[in-house]
Design a protein that fits this description.
The protein has about 180 residues and is mostly helical. It is built from five helices and three strands. Helix content is about 55%, strand content about 10%.
Length: about 180
């Protein structure tokens, strides 16, 4: 029995459970996000020949089947999957101290929570009558891209309120972008 305890310890059980929870969170994010169909590999910001100044508002054309939002969701999902794979590889490496394991486990849990919060906020914003949106959270800032024909101050306040009910971010770190 002691030999079995040496092979499977508390740390391994905790790591296995956290990895399973992270996998479930990633799957739920994938399953609950809108389906991605036939995404053309094109640059959304192409065909801009005018010089742009930093800080100028830019409107992105969303012609077609919401290619912009579908491409953004696909890119976000791909980058998150790569981060999860990297964290899993690090955690399963076996040469980590307890402190390093705790740090990487916390990063995995944080990534999972951010992903879940993004999906929830997107769903709530679309439930308020917006056609489509994408939310980017990184813990201290939030960027929200909303499809709208003219975003009014009341709508921006409504979006900010939805965001703040889900996450705690200083108001000066929240940016809302409009896509036509």
């Amino acid at each position: 029995m002691k030999k079995l305890n040496l092979i499977i310890g508390k740390k391994q059980i905790i790591l296995a459970c956290l990895t399973l929870i992270l996998g479930i969170a990633v799957y739920m994010n994938y399953a609950l996000s809108s389906p991605v169909e036939d995404i053309a590999a094109k640059d959304v910001m192409a065909d801009t020949t005018e010089a742009a100044n930093y800080g100028d508002a830019a409107f992105v054309s969303s012609e077609g089947d919401n290619d912009y939002f579908a491409q953004v969701r696909l890119t976000r999902m791909t980058s998150r999957d790569e981060a999860v794979e990297t964290l899993s590889a690090i955690l399963n490496g076996g040469d980590l101290s307890d402190e390093e394991t705790a740090t990487y486990t916390n990063e995995a849990v944080t990534l999972s929570k951010l992903s879940e919060s993004e999906s929830k906020i997107e769903s709530l914003i679309m439930a308020q009558g917006f056609n489509d949106c994408v939310v980017y959270l990184n813990g201290s800032t939030a960027n929200i891209v909303v499809k709208s024909d003219g975003l009014e101050a009341e709508q921006a306040a409504q979006i900010k309120d939805i965001l703040l009910t889900e996450v705690t971010i200083p108001a000066e770190n929240i940016r809302i972008f409009e896509v036509k």
